[in-house]
Amino acid sequence: MHFADGTIPEDYLRYTYAKYLWILGGIAFLFILLILSISVGAVSIPAYDVFLTLVNGAIDRINDVLALISEETSFLHLEIPRFGETASHKWDAIIWNIRLPQALAAIAAGVGLSVAGVAMQSILRNPLGSPFTLGISNAGAFGAAVSIVLLGTGRMTSTVAGAVVINNPYLTTFVAFAFCLLATAVILLIAKIRGASPEVMVLAGVALSSLFTAGTMFLQYFADDTQLAAVVFWTFGDVGRAGWRELWIMGVVVAIACMYFIANRWNYNAIDAGDETAKGLGVNVERIRNLGMVVAALVTAVIVSFLGVIGFVGLVCPHMVRRIIGDEQRFLIPGSMVMGGILLLASDTAARLIVAPYVLPVAVLTAFMGAPVFIYLLLRGYRR
Amino acid sequence: MILSVDELRFFYRNREILARIGFSINEGEVVAILGPNGVGKTTLLKCLNRILQPKSGVISLNGDSLSSLELIEIARRIGYVPQRVETGRLTAFDAVLLGRRPHIGWDITEKDLRIVDAAFRRFGMEHLRLSYIDEMSGGELQKVAIARAFVQEPKILLFDEPTSNLDLKNQVEILSTIREIVTQHQIAAVMTMHDLNLALRYADRFILLKDRSIHLCGGRDAITSKEIEEVYGVEVVIGELEGVPCVIPKCLTPAAGG
């Protein structure tokens, strides 16, 4: 066939640049939000100081690496000067130990839940698809309840802030994660027996969710006061629970999941065009469905186990992005990642502010913040 | 000979849908698969590019056995246009660009963009490039789906009832387009159809399915009123209009009031 007469379509390229511009704008906005989020709280830190601390912190770490290299090679003596006149370390402790990990956890969880949501909507061919459709969050909550009530990790101590602390968070996290994996395995087994059709997956998810919810209720019924409080507390997703170590694990898992989904963007486009079209385009639809489900489930399981249940982000962010830049997965996947980060970070910032000095868990706020925006977008319809 | 099918059998669970199907297709040929509802026309079509996996039989594609080819390699040689086209919030250009998927490595290249652009010109749809497909009419959508299969640069195009749900003008337009690209690029097209008259007008050869197997395979001359009656169970008269045979069913019951 001869297609030599085709030209590069300028109007289409302009159209795609506009989409990339939206995404880049979102990333820039996310950075500004990050600075703002770190600067506000019980102690106010000027935004410029936050910026300097972050930049200088990064420079210090690069210098550490450079120093190591120059020791090894003994002829390179590079050192990047610290930025700005104020070389003060006044805010280092608050920023590096408390606020930055929390903000980064919000971004990582938002990105992860949102990218899992966009993938599930495609995999299940269902606009109501979300990371929790398959019952992962309920499985995680049940796992936490098992750990707290049956394994006795649920004695609490009151902290100054009045929050409760689970005395063995690692075991709780581990058991929650194990149950998330169990739920995923059951779904995969059903997919293996009955074929990975969207209807089967959605219904299996509904069944599993109910089952784990019933199990959690059963345990709660027999739990004593403190255990009950700990179980309920655990299910309120809170990004403040993550330290640097949890953050690293979450960050790596989320990054791998994002890369996987971006690499498969054409396959998801094909599946969106219908199973038969996708197969006609050489896509192994069943395998892409199963693999996508596993990746989405894993990233969700890690986030839920570390932070608790954070609803709404995975469902709503993809739809917000669909209404701004459309359904084409090349733009939708990165767009949803950015939107997820923005929504969860903004929610967390608000959650720390609205009833200060008390700090709300972010899960309470995501729905408050997400729902009105979502309804507005629904009413407004698509961008022309 | 571009495609040949031999002793093809297909089972849905334990029920035999297709039994001992065999035929071949040449370059530049439009073949229509005809037969009553539920006889397995679509099933046969889907076996041709392994959307469905036949139980036994050999399908060879330019001499290569279909079962030995990777799915992506099949997609580079065979394009498939389903009966129902799913829409979404994306532009026609994006939708057609998806047809390049079997050839795309990490990302699209200038070449892909040029090919898609050429396809829009070829189908006279330049003005629709940046229209959203969820706002398109059935005819426009069908053209987008055909363009998508076309930019796969296949040697064979498969169509599952390309004219169902289309008005008269669009039916004629779509089928003339298929006819043209097949002749011009010396590829082949196989389509399942219900409308015998459109099939007789636009296809070169006909495969009539009855009772899980091929009742008849041949050109226009082979389609007689006797054969149609045997396959569809309806008495028909075959006339001729502008040199093309034309099938008119006799009334099963006298028209009301007439």
TrEMBL record, chain A:
Family designation: Belongs to the binding-protein-dependent transport system permease family. FecCD subfamily.
GO molecular function: transmembrane transporter activity
UniProt entry keywords in alphabetical sequence: Cell membrane, Membrane, Transmembrane, Transmembrane helix, Transport
InterPro entries documented for this protein: ABC_BtuC-like, ABC_transptr_permease_BtuC
TM region positions: 20-43, 103-124, 136-158, 170-190, 202-223, 244-263, 291-317, 358-379
GO terms for biological process, alphabetical: siderophore-iron import into cell
Cellular localisation: Cell membrane
GO CC field: plasma membrane
Organism in which the protein naturally occurs: hydrocarbon metagenome
Topology of this chain in the membrane: Multi-pass membrane protein
Pfam families xref list: FecCD (PF01032)
Protein name from the UniProt record: Iron(Iii) dicitrate transport system permease protein
TrEMBL record, chain B:
Pfam families: ABC_tran (PF00005)
Entry keyword set: ATP-binding, Nucleotide-binding, Transport
A single GO molecular function term of this UniProt record: ATP hydrolysis activity
Alphabetical list of InterPro entries matching this protein: AAA+_ATPase, ABC_transporter-like_ATP-bd, ABC_transporter-like_CS, Metal_Ion_Import_ABC, P-loop_NTPase
Entry keyword annotation includes Nucleotide-binding: yes
Record-annotated ABC transporter domain positions: 3-236
Keyword check for Signal: no
Protein family according to the UniProt entry: Belongs to the ABC transporter superfamily.
Name the record gives this protein: Iron(Iii) dicitrate transport atp-binding protein
Upper taxonomic lineage: unclassified sequences, metagenomes, ecological metagenomes
